[in-house]
Amino acid sequence: MMTSARGTIAPFDPVARELFDELAGWPIFDPHSHIDPHRPAARNLDEILGYHYYTELAHATGMPADRVGPGLDPRTRSLHLAEYLERIDNTVQYSWLMEIARTFHVFTHDRIDPQTIGDLYDRALRDRDGEEWDRQVWKASRLEAIFLTNDFDDPLEGWDTAAYVPCLRTDDLVLKLHEPDTIDRLRRSTGVDVQDLASLRVAIGRIFERFASRGARACAVSLPPDFIPRRAAPRRAVTPVRRAIQKMDLRPDEHEEIRTSVFWMLAEFCAEFELPFDLMIGPVRNVYPAGVAGGRDLFDRRVSLYEYRELFNHFATVRFPVSTLAPDAGSELVAYSWIFPNVLPMGHWWYSNVPAYIAADLKARIQALPKVKLLGYYSDAYKLEFILPKFNMYRRILAETLAEECVRERGWSVDRALQLGKVVLLDNPRRIFGRNRLSPGAAI
Amino acid sequence: MMTSARGTIAPFDPVARELFDELAGWPIFDPHSHIDPHRPAARNLDEILGYHYYTELAHATGMPADRVGPGLDPRTRSLHLAEYLERIDNTVQYSWLMEIARTFHVFTHDRIDPQTIGDLYDRALRDRDGEEWDRQVWKASRLEAIFLTNDFDDPLEGWDTAAYVPCLRTDDLVLKLHEPDTIDRLRRSTGVDVQDLASLRVAIGRIFERFASRGARACAVSLPPDFIPRRAAPRRAVTPVRRAIQKMDLRPDEHEEIRTSVFWMLAEFCAEFELPFDLMIGPVRNVYPAGVAGGRDLFDRRVSLYEYRELFNHFATVRFPVSTLAPDAGSELVAYSWIFPNVLPMGHWWYSNVPAYIAADLKARIQALPKVKLLGYYSDAYKLEFILPKFNMYRRILAETLAEECVRERGWSVDRALQLGKVVLLDNPRRIFGRNRLSPGAAI
Amino acid sequence: MMTSARGTIAPFDPVARELFDELAGWPIFDPHSHIDPHRPAARNLDEILGYHYYTELAHATGMPADRVGPGLDPRTRSLHLAEYLERIDNTVQYSWLMEIARTFHVFTHDRIDPQTIGDLYDRALRDRDGEEWDRQVWKASRLEAIFLTNDFDDPLEGWDTAAYVPCLRTDDLVLKLHEPDTIDRLRRSTGVDVQDLASLRVAIGRIFERFASRGARACAVSLPPDFIPRRAAPRRAVTPVRRAIQKMDLRPDEHEEIRTSVFWMLAEFCAEFELPFDLMIGPVRNVYPAGVAGGRDLFDRRVSLYEYRELFNHFATVRFPVSTLAPDAGSELVAYSWIFPNVLPMGHWWYSNVPAYIAADLKARIQALPKVKLLGYYSDAYKLEFILPKFNMYRRILAETLAEECVRERGWSVDRALQLGKVVLLDNPRRIFGRNRLSPGAAI
To answer: Which chains touch C (3 or more CB pairs under 8 A)?
Structure first.
């Protein structure tokens, strides 16, 4: 049913290969994903190929968006997408797909294309296996814990939150408070009659309580490049927040005041509930509106962590794992992590999740940052199957970096290099994302 | 007369060497140069050493600009420049020179310096050979097609436009419409009595017709870092354009309105004539006015493709091969090419045309972008002789990248790696720059 | 007393190792440090561990600042810091410490930790050796010359200025003229009754005379990212400068006018006294006020040398060795050094002083810039002991770059590669920092 054959390719260099063989046998602690805990593994190949990495890359080569439109049946969508896979068969994204096919579906062809897609589709049909399939993928990937991305009104019920760890995603609160739906959801999920800044705070406090008591171990937000965290001035925010709640039109400066105030409030609750606050800096939403779902966002590379200084200074007790979207911003994150105790270099995000960028960043982090601050990698996956190939990609780069930088250059033993690998991959994520104030028992 | 000996040095790594030996035998398709089709190869060494790469580097080490001034005779200029070559004999630019000397002029000395320059000058005298020399260099370099940089009033007559492919360069129209000479040239070359925005459009339409019917396969423009393409508002542009044509003084916002409107109009014609629109983003002209000719321009690295979003969205049918001048902007181009179907990563331009920068960019492009979008390299050359050493530099980096990334890391066969190389170097440029609406026969 | 054993680790690659073995035997010319010439080597381990690289990294992992506070005795501070060294034992900064311990103190343990710190502290006690210890470290490191960082009111007396070369640091004049202390120090040290712009110029002229006559060979300043050098407009500056001297409150535009005017005046004196003007671009001071001493400054990566164009054009005779703090700004410095004769790429500064960043920058510099402009490395050290391990780190990277780029890729002989290494490490720094107008005898 599931092959034990290694679907991934080990590094060429023998020292790196030895390191990788070890790393690849370790459990995976994944501090950021978009997994649905009610349906974590893919029930069919369409749920794999529907990942925006494939639809957007295919679309970028000319595939019309409606070839994978929501109105089509899953098998048809997969057949359509397969027509475009040859165009991206050089990419690391395609290599994840091959590793999934080989590792989880005993696929033996060299390519996924219109000739072989039918076979693969059949092999990947897991509807009847249901939760048993989830468990098989979990076990084959040696998963230990996966962090989710939960809306603030997620009831957080119906799954094992020690395995599928809740993480409070707060983009809606910070960036969309003025949208009618947000306030309605907020009232419904908290029972608070939100009418103004004060009741907003009460409601958000309820959210944190619920998340913390259900074992959440992080709060997260993605922030556009023009966002500047400033110390909240509640008196200034009172009127804009009330106007937003009353669904009145807002001026740009009122929007700005609202997102600044809500963001600062969230940081205050992170301090109170002892939750790390993941900052995912850079995306601009809907830059390419005609793109496929999930493939419309980009960034403006002109960002600086200097804009975050007031935040980092004010919230000395809050740990901020930081991801930057612009690959060229990576070296600034090294410097800020070097100085601020509460700034931590998080995994390699989205457009930065390319081996060439990861390798350059990882080498600098290992050379210049305290090892106890290095936060390894996260999968950002929507389906369980992606976690293994993405982590294997990272573990391969980590093995090569440790081989070159530590064993070869510094003369370390392989054992010492492996210890550093463990700190980066497991010890730090387990410790830093190990608990919150209400669930201290989860700490490791 | 011309040695067959390989003037270039093959990669050290045996797999890369095997790949390079193959790549180096392929034809060259060069989608951007400044070659003069009436006099493509150098008639003497001064036309080689006069390339701004050498005069500006020599000047940057202390050579007074007048040592290579236009009033001197060609041999004297070459002797003068040779006095400074030892100072730059570490550079890749110098290595192109050595490869030209060895490949085309049977030069056997180890260095080009005041002792050997006389010999090389004599060897490189090709005045008597004339067009026969052009043909020899063409053949020895295995050239297939070279794109030119043609002013809008170039008559495009007197050469084989299938080999020396016209490309409409539009900097003068976008950035210098207010200069009296521009409008005069526009009137003369189109026969249109340009007086206002409407007649300007008619004149530019005539230009596109002429270029397209003469086999042009691209339109190109270089844009300063502060340029922001915005959707044209013809009503807003009417008055500034008329004032520019009437040679009246313009306010900064009027200049801005003019360049925005003309640029947008060009994109509209690119759509109509089905021409790729090469965007060369970043240069600021004349930053160092005391520099030698061609060596006065630099850039401001604070640019972002985010400013181009409206353009890329609006002109979905126009392909935009993009070059960025700031080397650190390369990773943003990867992300925009990943999402926008009509954005294509073009070759490595000018200050980014350094092996370390090319290698980093190329690796990321091969890892993250659909192979059908990778546009390889262009020479940017002013004389035919430079095409071979520049392309060999790129083919060496490509061979090393394919060897390391594809053969070693992913376990590909050498044949599969070569196929990818061919897609990058030949298939894509031939297809994307293969035709226009009026010359569909040129398509491949 | 001092081991001859090599404390550093040679490169793994045999060609790089051969090159490194040679480079490592050369003298060191160090054009920027913070050495105190009255007390150059460390008298005890606390003076080594007190280097901000260690206290700030330890603090960034959670060490409270008061664990190494000034009120503690030196041994206690060292013991406290040692408790945190395991957390940073992966870093290149820690490797400098190990090399110091092994090379200068015959330390034979594998780690510096709470168990071994006592032994190392005892070994490193050099109070009784005094100046003899300074001489030993100097000799063991094969030092030839070290540039200092001298305040403008430093009397420059009491040491051999051919070995410990004065360098006029001007941050106080440019950035703190409005602070009462600055004017008082200026009056006292120059004897000029500074009251206005004219007398300020007289005073600064006196400073340059004193420094030049005492053998200074550079002027230096660190500039924040928002600083834009503009041509001075003395008439505009008269009032703000007078108000600053009279200790009146200043508006932001007046502050700006003052720092611009003083900076421009310094460049004029550099021209007059024929002193290189080191520009250290990027730091913002006190971004993290709660940090340890020396560990509070960071940067905003959004800087461009384009802002410096007027300066570089105006002062054609002044050489500007430029350091950039943001690692991602390195490629722009390559381009500006390529064009401007008076812009020189200086060593790798602070947050850019990480092997991964150095290697990337160095490779591009060697590929694209005239060798006579490459300015190698500087230690930025506060104590003599750091110069050797830091230079060895750089020499290792240089050896690897020469091995890979020159010997392997271009087929150079090892001797030719070594010659290039000597140009970079010794010939250029000796020549460019060799003299000033009043001490031409110091030229080499």
So the answer is: A, B
Within 13 A of A402's CA, how many CA atoms are on the CB side? 31
3.90.640.10, 3.10.290.10, 1.10.8.60, 3.20.20.140: CATH of A132-397+436-442: 3.20.20.140
Q: Does A92 touch chain B (CB under 8 A)?
A: yes
* Residue numbers in C near B291 (CB within 8 A): 339
For B220, list phi and psi in degrees, rounded to 5.
-140, 155
Q: Of chain B residues 291-310, which have a CB less than 8 A from chain C?
A: 291, 295-296, 298-302
Provide the token pair at A420.
Answer: 């550093």
Q: Do C331 and B357 touch (CB under 8 A)?
A: yes
Give tens-digit pLDDT for B389-437. 999 999 999 999 999 999 999 999 999 999 999 999 999 999 999 999 9
Do C237 and C257 touch, CB atoms closer than 8 A? Answer: yes
The gap from C-alpha C136 to its chain's centroid, in whole angstroms, comes to 22
pTM of the complete model = 0.97
Listed in order, strand segments (DSSP E) in C86-199 are: 143-147, 164-165, 167-169
Q: What is the amino acid identity at position B220?
A: A
**pLDDT tens-place string over residues C361-384:** 999 999 999 999 999 999 999 999
Our CA-based measurement puts residue B77 at a distance from the nearest CA of chain A, in whole angstroms, of 42
According to CATH, what is the number of the domain A45-125?
Answer: 1.10.2020.10
Q: What is the DSSP string of C302-364?
A: ---GGGGHHHHHH-TTS-EEEEESSGGGHHHHHHHHHH-TTEEE----GGG-SHHHHHHHHHH
Asked if C44-125 and C149-346 have one fold, the answer is no
C-chain residues near B296 (CB < 8 A): 339
Instruction: Tally A–B CB contacts below 8 A.
Output: 109
Given a cut of 80, whether residue C442 has pLDDT beyond it is no
Query: How close C193 comes to chain A (CA, Å)?
Result: 40
C331 touches chain B (CB under 8 A): yes
- What architecture does CATH give domain C44-125? Orthogonal Bundle (1.10)
In angstroms, the separation between the Cα of residue B409 and the nearest Cα of chain A is 6
How far is it, in rounded angstroms, from Cα A347 to Cα A150? 19
State whether residue B56 sits within 8 Å of chain C by CB: yes
Q: Kindly determine whether residue B306 and residue A300, on different chains, have CB atoms separated by under 8 Å.
A: yes
- C159 and C207 Cβ atoms separated by less than 8 Å: no
> How is residue B359 written in tokens?
């290698």
Q: Name every residue whose Cβ is closer than 8 Å to that of residue C415 and which is 6 or more positions away in sequence.
A: none
Residue of C nearest to B10 (CA): C409
Q: Which residue on chain B is closest to A351 by alpha carbon?
A: B335
Residue A123: pLDDT band by 50, 70, 90 thresholds?
very high
Q: B155-346 belongs to which homologous superfamily? A: Metal-dependent hydrolases (3.20.20.140)
For B9, the closest of C328, C372, C410 (CB atoms) is: C410
Tell me whether residues B360 and A356 touch, CB distance under 8 A.
yes
DSSP H or E run through A168:
strand A167-169
Q: Which of C61, C85, C90 should one mutate to test binding to chain A, selecting the residue with the greatest count of A CBs within 10 A?
A: C90
pLDDT tens string A21-55: 999 999 999 999 999 999 999 999 999 999 999 99
* CA B378/CA B390 separation, integer angstroms: 8
Q: Which CATH number fits domain C149-346: 3.20.20.140, 3.40.120.10, 3.90.1720.10, 3.40.350.10?
A: 3.20.20.140
Q: Where are the domains of chain A?
A: 45-125, 132-397+436-442
Residue contact C372–B61, C-beta within 8 A: yes
Measured CA to CA, the distance from residue A189 to residue A187 in angstroms comes to 6
- pLDDT for position B195: 95
Task: Write out the DSSP string of B245-282.
Answer: HTT----HHHHHHHHHHHHHHHHHHHHHHT--EEEEE-
